[in-house]
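I have been asked to look over a protein record a colleague put together. Alongside the sequence sits a line of tokens, each denoting a local backbone shape. I have pasted the whole thing underneath without changing anything:
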Amino acid sequence: MANERREYSGVAPRPYDYRSSSVRRLLLALGAVAVVIVLGTVGYVVLGLTVLDAVYQTVTTVFTVGYREVVPFDTPAEKIYTVVVIVVGVGTVLYTATLTLELVLEGHVGNAWGRRRMQRDIDRLEGHAIVCGWGRVGRAAAEQLTREGQDVVVIDVSEERLVGCPYPFIAGDATSDELLRAAGIATARTVVASLDDDSGSVYVVLTARTLNPDVLIIARSRTDDAEPKFLRAGADRVVNPQRLGGNRIAAFAVSPYVVEFLDVVMHEDALEFRMVDVEVRAGSVLVGSTIADTRAAEGGAAVLLALRTGGVFVTDPQPGTVLQPGDVLIAVGTSEQVHDLQQRAGLL
């Protein structure tokens, strides 16, 4: 869906609130109408009517159509039973009609249809990102992920904040197992935990890691003290925007053009080159090859800046270094070179 993104706007209803109070009452009322028709039919059959005549008599009585009686009701039992059917049936039908009108006027029917359509969109996603928290950090992360071609699902507890959200969304508590499952945690590639408080984000990390042990979890930390807690809960990366902002200011003061160049390479399409990390997958042609082999690939190769192996970064790796499954190459190259490297690594 990355290339055919549907815009979502308007009131942000709860996608999984199908059994809301009004809808529940309407379903119960419809069930009551069905019960009245069944019991009315059974009663008329007992009084001597055929099944078809009994159904006909019950429906015309309950819905106040006003047709004549199928057979003349002469006995007291027939008359009393018909009165009971009229009182109970008509009351039930009027109550059901009132609830239906209430739902239509309040927009519940349209919202329910929109929620179901949105949920179908979410159910079709695979390898998407789930952004928990639609604040400034969550919005920026979603926009960048979209630019990189990744689908995004947003979860936020505030329905007001989700108004105008351009991505499929769920209004509710992101720490809920049900909501994370609804957002497609089982098939997601990334989870971004960026709630208004660190304790909530920690719980999101813990829940997401339990539901999908393989998902990449990136947590936004507001304080330095919270970072170890995120890591213990299962986060793969922890980002402190305040500290990053300070480091960025210092970097601009020392090497402004280097920072600007990295920004362009990482986040914009203005230059021909891209900077990427490429994980070497088991069974790919890169396994067992050397850094020299990778650099000498046909058609030109991306420039390898570093190698992450055994959890440690090695800058300017030696030409004879043999690549193993799980190693990560940090490289810069054209789109074609990057695509070729990802293909040989088994990512495409």
